[in-house]
Design goal:
The protein has 16 helices and 9 strands. It is an alpha/beta fold. It is globular and about 55 Å long.
């Protein structure tokens, strides 16, 4: 095994660490904006294998990252199951809310394989071009995807959180369906060439401890176990953002090989043998200059001698100057 990212995910410490960034393919890059303009809408871009592969590879050509992450979206799964999905310019996703058994009955797992075939084709195209970089597949974790499905848009996800108390059986059923769909989705990505996968639970920290265990930890454990049974050599990175003090327990109970640290996470609170990824503040990257240099040094020091993948604590901001990313790569690549 020679790919640096995969070596670290299997417990090896490297200096300098491997580097990639969440949302490294995106609006901060002029070449991405040009490609998206060709595609039309955002979902059209995700469903066009050639263009999705192109934007996935653009940041690798520019910066030489150690990994590519598939360009797609966490809401492709509910769309594939039959929920409506649109992306308004500057306003994020919109979905017709599903909040009861009748809405749940409209969702079909048997649609997923056919409707996500372009995503798997994009994975195959990307895998042919990577060289020494690893290919990361991904999916939204069931709770975070459920938030958008129930509320119908981004925000504080009030409706989802209320439903967790008012109608717990509904949310359990929805998350069970999403867990099955996520396993199928990631299985398809791995079969197409993904060498590691990441589970994004962006809104995990909205839940109190009891619901965190039921709706974040339990689905991630099922997903990780299912993937490990069929693909024992493919690592899973879990990212329960804003988990706080629950992050160490999440890692232990789910069986993921690594955890993504959000900006607020102190690595000293995590087991020393746990592989970690993160956690530079995206605002430091946006700012650049001395602030960036200072924060990169702080992150490198904070992880000590543990296996570490350098990344952000959340996605790169669209206003980030591309030259700041180039400077970040220079700073991280210094042993």
């Amino acid at each position: 095994m020679t790919k640096r990212l995969l070596r670290v995910l299997n417990g090896e410490r490297l200096d300098p660490p491997p580097l990639w960034l969440m949302r490294q393919a995106g609006r901060y890059l002029p070449e991405y904006r040009a490609t998206r303009a060709k595609a039309g809408g955002f979902l059209d871009l995700c469903m066009n294998p050639a263009l999705a592969a192109e934007v996935t590879l653009q940041p690798l050509r520019r910066y030489g990252f150690d990994a590519a992450i598939l360009f797609s979206d966490i809401l492709v799964l509910p769309w594939a199951m039959g929920q409506g999905l649109t992306y308004g310019e500057g306003e994020g996703p919109r979905l017709p809310p599903i909040r009861d058994a009748a809405g749940l009955a409209t969702l079909r797992l048997d649609r997923v394989a056919e409707r996500t075939a372009p995503v798997r084709e994009a994975v195959r195209l990307i895998a042919r071009e990577l060289g020494d970089a690893a290919l990361i597949g991904f999916a939204g974790a069931p709770f975070t995807v459920a938030c958008y499905m129930v509320d119908g848009r981004g925000g504080d996800f009030h409706e989802t959180r209320v439903l967790a108390f008012r109608d717990p059986g509904f949310l359990v059923a929805l998350i069970d369906l999403l867990t099955k769909g996520t396993i199928a989705t990631l299985t398809g990505q791995i079969e197409a060439g993904a060498e590691a996968v990441m589970l994004f639970d962006t809104w995990a920290g909205l839940l109190p401890p009891s619901l965190f265990a039921a709706h974040v930890v339990a689905p991630a454990k099922r997903i990780t176990a299912a993937l490990r049974a069929h693909f024992p050599g493919v690592p899973v990175i879990g990212f329960p953002r804003l988990a706080g003090a629950s992050l160490a327990a999440y890692a232990r109970q789910t069986g993921v090989q690594a955890v993504g640290m959000d900006t607020q996470t102190d690595p000293a609170t995590l087991p020393p043998d746990l592989v970690v990824q993160g956690n530079l503040d995206p605002l430091a990257l946006l700012t650049g200059g001395e602030a960036l240099e200072r924060e990169v040094t702080a992150v490198r020091r904070s992880v000590g001698n543990r296996p570490h993948i350098f990344n952000l604590g959340h996605g790169i901001l669209k206003e980030t100057p591309p030259e700041n990313v180039a400077r970040l790569v220079e700073l991280v690549r210094v042993p």
